[in-house]
Design a protein that fits this description.
The chain is of the alpha/beta class. Helix content is 43%, strand content 14%. It has two domains: 3-105, Enolase-like, domain 1, CATH 3.30.390; 122-333, TIM Barrel, CATH 3.20.20.120. The chain has helices at 43-57, 65-76, 83-104, 108-111, 134-146, 167-184, 200-210, 227-236, 249-258, 275-287, 302-313, 327-333, and strands at 3-11, 19-26, 31-36, 122-125, 151-154, 189-193, 217-219, 241-243, 264-265, 291-292, 320-323. The strands form three sheets. Strands 5-6-7-8-9-10 form a six-stranded parallel β-sheet, covered by helices on one side. A three-stranded antiparallel β-sheet has the order 1-2-3. Strands 4-11 form a two-stranded parallel sheet. Helix 1 (43-57) packs across helix 3 (83-104), helix 6 (167-184) packs parallel to helix 7 and helix 10 (275-287) packs parallel to helix 11 (302-313). The longest helix has 22 residues, at 83-104. It is globular and about 60 Å long.
């Protein structure tokens, strides 16, 4: 079962950024699929990493998954990782797990110890695309909840991203969240996205202004690269703090846990190092009473599939991400597209 080919495929979903899939083929005629996280205008650098890693992977045993991620970091990257590198590694690693499952005739979740749950809760993201006013957010929120979603994530902050923002910008955030809460009622969970943009003084102030609307969480109020600031925010803010999408591997999460800087982590299976790395980060988190909500700004096909397998396997799973505006293109890419089902009441 030697690797014979590693091929990247770039797909334009018509929104936001390109998707990047990886196909790994082996000498026994099987193939596996993975997906790499991308950002707008950075997909080609990740493609280059996939192709360069392929030079060293072809001819190796496809079943040696942990060995691949180890030598990729220590030998190929010389222990200097970054988003582009880890995204490439993650996509290839997923494809190797897909191959392992196909070879043994079992789903990947069975190789991870079996499922802890039969259903995976998802929150909607991407639903507010194009909304500029509180009323527009509210209208789109009602449409999304009507589809059966019980949790909505959104970034209510006006652009551009800045560390320090005006009082007018703060008030716009409050009015947007107020409008969404009024539109969907008290039983829908609102997940507030900050995109690590703020200085602590703004992050704390805005959080206190949002408390009357009972947010489910407050995501990345500041960058996790400043763990002291993140820990300060968690101490001062009276709602669950989320961090993790900008971190790679368990080594970068370690200090977050040790400093008790977050209540919830959101590593991305398409950038954190892959399926096994996400599972091991979740195991570390469990020891610190931290729950896991995998980030998934990827397609609702391969990346979502990898996310769901890990989410099913870890005891401390909370909720995961589903981009509604990727559904149309995903239906064209996937043979059997995922469908979101309304939870039984």
């Amino acid at each position: 079962m030697k690797v014979t080919a590693v091929t990247p495929f770039v797909v334009d979903p018509g929104y936001g950024k390109n998707w990047l899939f990886v196909k790994v083929e082996t000498s026994d005629g099987l193939h596996g699929w993975g997906e790499c996280y991308t950002q707008a205008d950075r997909d080609q650098s990740i493609v280059a990493h996939v192709r360069q890693l392929a030079r060293y992977l072809v001819g190796r045993d496809a079943g040696h998954i942990r060995h691949f991620t180890h030598w990729a970091y220590h030998d190929f990257a010389a222990k200097r990782g970054a988003m582009d590198f880890w995204s490439a590694v993650s996509g290839i690693e997923q494809a190797l797990w897909d191959l392992a499952g196909k070879r043994l005739g079992v789903p990947v979740v069975s190789l991870l110890g079996g499922p802890c749950r039969e259903r995976i809760r998802v929150y909607a993201n991407g639903w507010y695309s194009g909304a500029k006013t509180p009323d527009a957010y509210a209208a789109k929120a009602k449409e999304t909840v009507a589809r059966g979603f019980t949790a909505l994530k959104f970034d209510p902050f006006p652009g551009p991203w800045r560390t320090h923002i005006s009082r007018d910008a703060e008030q716009q955030v409050v009015e947007t969240v107020r409008a969404v809460r009024d539109a969907v009622g008290p039983k829908v969970d609102l997940l507030i996205e900050v995109h690590r943009r703020l200085a602590p003084m703004h992050a704390v102030r805005v959080a206190r202004l949002l408390e009357p609307f009972d947010p489910f969480w407050y995501e990345e109020p500041v960058s996790a690269r400043d763990v002291n600031a993140l820990a300060e925010c968690r101490h001062e803010i009276r709602m669950p703090i989320v961090t993790g999408e900008e971190l790679y591997t368990r080594f970068e999460f370690r200090e977050v846990f040790e400093r008790r800087a977050a209540d919830i982590i959101n590593p991305d299976v398409c950038s954190v190092g892959g399926i096994q790395e996400l599972r091991e980060i979740a195991a570390m988190a469990e020891a610190y009473h931290v729950v896991v909500s995998p980030h998934n700004y990827n397609s609702t096909t391969v990346g979502l599939a990898a996310t769901l397998h890990v989410s099913a396997a870890i005891p401390n799973f909370l909720i995961t991400e589903y981009f509604v505006n990727f559904e149309e293109r995903a239906a064209e890419v996937a043979v059997n597209p995922f469908r979101v089902e309304r939870a039984a009441t």
